[in-house]
Write a structure and sequence with these properties.
Elements lengths: L1 H20 L3 H8 L2 E9 L19 E12 L5 E7 L2 E12 L5 E8 L4 E10 L8 H6 L4 E9 L7 E6 L7 H6 L10 H5 L4 E5 L10 E11 L2 E14 L12 E12 L15 E7 L17 E4 L2 E5 L13 E6 L1
Antiparallel strand pairs: 1-2, 1-8, 2-3, 3-4, 4-5, 5-6, 6-7, 7-8, 9-10, 10-11, 11-12, 13-16, 14-15
């Protein structure tokens, strides 16, 4: 009889130990956040201009589609944490709201990955589906009303490989309050212009050697964004003020290059439209001047500043050289 009681006591002790070691389902949910189903595409060997990174409506042999269970947790600061198993690796993406689209339909996040294997090239939440999507056909099939986009680049691959995650089940409940407090910055969402080379470049109204004043020049570069054409533009105006240089004298000649406008336009993705921003900027300015035959310049001094809206924003460095030919003004635009 004593032996039987000893066995019962031991069984109860083991049962108590097991119950203490296993957390409740509620505790697991609170730690990792609610679970959602997302669509994921693993796209490999993307070319330099991204034209073989399209959407699910275009047949391709370099993409694998999967359903992915993700956990999304929202903190009180509106920070989002997305957790998922990508391949055999647990990955956590943390995003902090940093900017919004001009049409106030998208929030762009400053995001990072828990592993060095992946760089976050784009994280955005869009209220609606009027935006560039990898799973465009799928979103239309389910009549989606919003989407959380997280696009990753595999840094360990020898080719250009991406993991495209789009979650149509998640809803950011305080979207209106967050978007109202953010600054507009379409460049935060212009990830394709950062990742790929342009598919086309166009220049109009280029200044000629006969006139370097008040002659606008517009440069447009178009990028492939998941089947959408996203065009970035910059318009420049050059101006020269000078006077006749007296013999054995000196005179100031002022050259001014002004960025008069910038813009981004994407017909299929208005969340990327901007009336004052683009990924294009001026990086180099080359000037040349000439004098009449049998007259020469004995010395030259160059000075200047870089301004933005009347504020000094940078310094100017210059080199002086000698060459033969007509006067010109040349500037280089980079992205």
């Amino acid at each position: 009889m004593k032996k039987a009681m000893h066995i019962v006591s031991l069984s109860l002790s083991l049962a108590l130990l097991v119950s203490l070691m296993l957390p409740s389902a509620a505790a697991i949910q609170q730690e990792s956040g609610p679970s959602y189903m997302a669509k994921v595409a693993i796209v490999t060997d993307v070319n330099d201009n991204g034209t073989n990174l399209n959407n699910d409506g275009v047949g391709t042999d370099n993409a694998i589609y999967q359903d992915l269970q993700v956990s999304i947790h929202t903190t009180t600061q509106a920070e989002l944490q997305l957790e998922a198993m990508i391949g055999n690796k647990a990955v956590t993406i943390t995003g902090v709201p940093a900017a919004r689209s001009e049409n106030m339909k998208a929030i762009f996040f400053s995001a990072s990955s828990s592993t060095a294997k992946y760089d976050v090239v784009n994280m955005a939440y869009v209220d609606g589906t009027a935006t560039s999507l990898y799973f465009k056909n799928y979103s239309e099939t389910i009549n989606a009303s919003s989407v959380l986009k997280v696009y990753l680049r595999d840094t360990t691959s020898n080719t250009r490989d991406y993991v495209m995650i789009e979650c149509f089940d998640f809803t950011l409940s305080n979207f209106s309050n967050i978007v109202a407090e953010l600054p507009a910055d379409a460049l935060m969402g212009a990830w394709a212009a950062e990742e790929f080379c342009p598919v086309s470049t166009e220049e109009t109204d280029s200044p000629t050697s006969r006139s370097t004043s008040n002659n606008p020049r517009t440069i447009e570069e178009t990028f492939w964004n998941l089947g959408c054409e996203e065009t970035h533009s910059i318009t420049l105006v050059s101006n020269v003020t000078y006077s006749k240089i007296p013999a054995n004298g000196d005179e100031d000649i002022t050259y001014i290059l002004t960025v008069t406008s910038k813009s981004i336009s994407c017909e299929e993705d208005p969340t990327h439209d901007s009336s004052k921003e683009s990924a294009l900027y001026v990086t180099d300015l080359a000037l040349s001047q000439a004098c009449a035959p049998y007259i020469f310049i004995t010395s030259e001094h160059i000075d200047g500043v870089v301004r933005k809206e009347s504020l000094l924003v940078g310094s100017l460095s210059a080199d002086i050289g000698v060459s033969f030919g007509p006067p010109t003004m040349v500037h280089t635009v980079l992205r």
